[in-house]
Design goal:
Elements: H1 5-14, H2 18-29, H3 37-64, E1 66-72, H4 76-86, E2 97-100, H5 109-116, E3 128-129, E4 132-133, H6 138-149, E5 155-158, E6 161-167, E7 170-178, E8 190-197, H7 202-217, E9 223-230, E10 237-245, H8 257-271, H9 275-281, E11 288-293, H10 300-311, E12 315-317, H11 327-335, E13 342-345, E14 388-389, E15 395-396, H12 402-410, E16 419-424, H13 432-435, E17 442-445, H14 451-462, H15 474-481, H16 497-519, H17 527-536, H18 541-546, H19 548-577
Parallel strand pairs: 9-12, 11-16, 11-17, 12-13, 13-16
Antiparallel strand pairs: 1-8, 2-5, 3-4, 6-7, 7-8, 9-10, 14-15
Helix pairs in contact: 4-7, 11-12, 14-16, 14-17
Length: 578
């Protein structure tokens, strides 16, 4: 079939080089491509039609014959499934995976601690068994630890694409997909898709529930701590899990036992069954607030952490002084709080908004305000610190106000069921509106260590816990069991055994604790200061008693010099202002 010149020109436009190729085929192979042109067109049409048909059939199949669950990066369920997948036995045998060593939402530093803790079987050399100590030298032990810490734990997760696996006799598919976004720095474009054949999604529900249980069970009785910070989107705030820690016994918090039990009993009464209904029947918002005040190092945050561990509550940390936190993000954070948790705001007095109503965290460059909060003419505002400038040239607010904080605590739209705990070193600086009943329902004042507290601190440092099976180094065991640090002989081989030796050790520590408490002035030092001193002599209980008088003298001189410097600084500042 011969083509006209116009047809040849048309084919040359559609297929560049057609004329040259046809001449080669005709000259060397004696094949006229024009004779087979209709077959090529039919084949092309068939290919295009099959492409669209396959897409239609695939879409029809996935819509009506497949169940799919979608999980996004900013949801905890994403972490549950990734953790579950990483713990499957065949994960390390797959040929398509993403390897890394970086921690993230489904892995944390505490996960490494549980895998590589010093309490593993290979470190049993430090344990004391039946009164005998079978230990290697410190140099050998530390060399082994350092060599182990050089290598970060390898983490394997499914790579981008589709992964098929069997679960309870059913073939499932996990797809990890990175969707394109206009802003490349946005990390919230990663999604997981879990699919199964059939119209019944129960197998997916069971797998996700199993993944959630596995993720939660890894923590055991540990206290989970979240922190309010920028989310993966980069613009909004979100609660991000930062760590999990073993619960702290309540008796290790140095505070009057009556106050501790009163605080614990009040929280237990608030969480008791039927309390929420009682609040609702009486028209009272179901919220509870506490203010823990006292000098630094007296155990305010420790009490909150200990109570959270005892009751199994999660802790959510909020920093009101964050430069990026605004009113919208503050409301978003409070709206995402679970019903039973502790919201901890540490050192609330350090944020300027808690001092006077309507004052922003950061000074503004202009007098105009965009909200209905009272105007502020505080002289602390500085024109040298400009506010945020909008595109139209107007000054916008930065930070949050006391009014917005009070509204989010007990306003009409405030969340219910959470426990608010605020700590402060200077309660007199706080605005009265923040401390009124309904926002702060109980105040607990912490004190400096008295004689009873000092004695308990000494016991907690040097006593050996029978229940916890605290592991001691052989050197420390000998020093605690002996009457003197310089004496090198121990009573490890006495026939009465390790239990009687522990009893003798406890009795000796109680006597030393009373002697130590008599040498430290009552009500002059914080528990943290005394604990810091004892930690310097953690292996030498008698040396701690012998050197405590000199330590007290040095600390008094330091405090006297610091106070004199503060007075001098205030006087010089007053002269400059005058």
């Amino acid at each position: 079939m011969a083509l006209s010149q116009s047809d040849t020109a048309f084919l040359e436009a559609l297929v560049p080089g057609y004329t040259f190729i046809s001449r080669i085929f005709l000259s060397y192979l004696h094949i006229d491509l024009a004779a087979y042109l209709q077959y090529f067109v039919a084949l092309a049409l068939f290919g295009v039609s099959m492409r669209y048909l396959s897409e239609y059939l695939t879409q029809f199949f996935e819509t009506y014959l497949v169940c799919t669950a979608e999980m996004r990066l900013d949801d905890e369920l994403f972490n549950y499934l990734m953790y579950w997948w990483s713990r499957r036995p065949n994960t390390k045998r797959t040929n398509h995976f993403l390897a890394g060593v970086r921690t993230n939402g489904y892995w944390g530093d505490d996960d490494d601690d549980s895998d590589n803790a010093d309490s593993d079987d290979e470190d049993e050399e430090w344990s004391v068994v039946d009164g005998s100590t079978n230990a290697e030298s410190f140099d050998d032990y530390w060399t082994k630890v350092i060599n182990r810490d050089k290598y970060k734990k390898l983490r394997f997760t499914p790579a981008q694409g589709r992964h098929y696996f069997w679960y309870q006799g059913r073939l499932l598919m996990l797809e990890r997909r990175y969707e394109q976004s206009g802003a490349r720095w946005v990390l919230n474009n990663e999604k997981l898709y879990l699919s199964c054949l059939g119209r019944d999604p129960s197998i997916l529900h069971k797998l996700l529930s199993d993944a959630q249980h596995k993720f939660v069970e890894r923590d055991g009785s540990r206290t989970i701590i979240y922190r309010g910070q920028r989310g993966s989107s980069g613009s909004t705030f979100d609660w991000c899990r930062c760590m999990s820690r073993p619960p702290r016994p309540l008796d290790t918090v140095i505070l009057d036992n009556t106050q501790k039990q009163l605080f614990l009993a009040d929280i237990e009464d608030y969480l008791e069954k039927g309390t929420a209904e009682w609040y609702a029947e009486h028209g009272i918002p179901y919220r509870r607030g506490y203010l823990l005040s006292g000098p630094p190092g007296t155990g305010k945050s420790s009490l909150c952490f200990a109570v959270a561990g005892k009751l199994g509550l999660k802790i959510y940390l909020l920093n009101l002084s964050s430069r990026a936190l605004d009113e919208d993000n503050l409301y978003a954070l409070f709206s995402e709080l679970p019903r039973r948790c502790i919201l901890l705001v540490e050192d609330v007095d350090t944020s300027e908004i808690t001092h006077s109503r309507g004052q922003s965290i950061f000074p503004r460059s202009g007098p105009s305000q965009a909200d209905n909060s009272p105007s502020n003419t505080d002289n602390n505002s500085s024109p040298d610190e400009p506010g945020k400038i909008s595109p139209d040239g107007k000054t916008e607010k930065t930070g949050i106000t006391l009014s917005s904080l009070l509204n989010v605590l007990d306003g009409v739209a405030a969340s219910e069921g959470r426990i608010l705990v605020m700590t402060t070193n200077h309660p007199e600086k706080l605005d009265d509106a923040l401390l009124r009943a309904g926002r702060v329902d109980m105040q607990i004042e912490f004190r400096l260590a008295i004689s009873e507290d000092i004695e308990n601190l000494y016991k907690s440092i040097y006593s050996v816990s029978k229940e916890a099976r605290v592991r001691q180094s052989p050197r420390r065991v000998k020093q605690l069991q002996n009457g003197s640090e310089e004496d090198g002989e121990s009573d490890d081989h006495k026939p009465n055994g390790v239990h009687s030796r522990r009893h003798e050790l406890q009795s000796r520590i109680e006597n030393l604790a009373k002697e130590f408490a008599s040498l430290v002035p009552s009500g002059e030092f914080s528990p943290a200061e005394i604990q810091g001193y004892l930690l310097k002599h953690k292996d030498h209980p008698e040396r701690a008693i012998r050197d405590v008088a000199e330590w007290v003298k040095e600390e008094r001189e330091k405090k006297r010099a610091k106070k004199a410097a503060e007075i001098k600084a205030k006087e010089s500042q007053g002269k400059k202002q005058s």
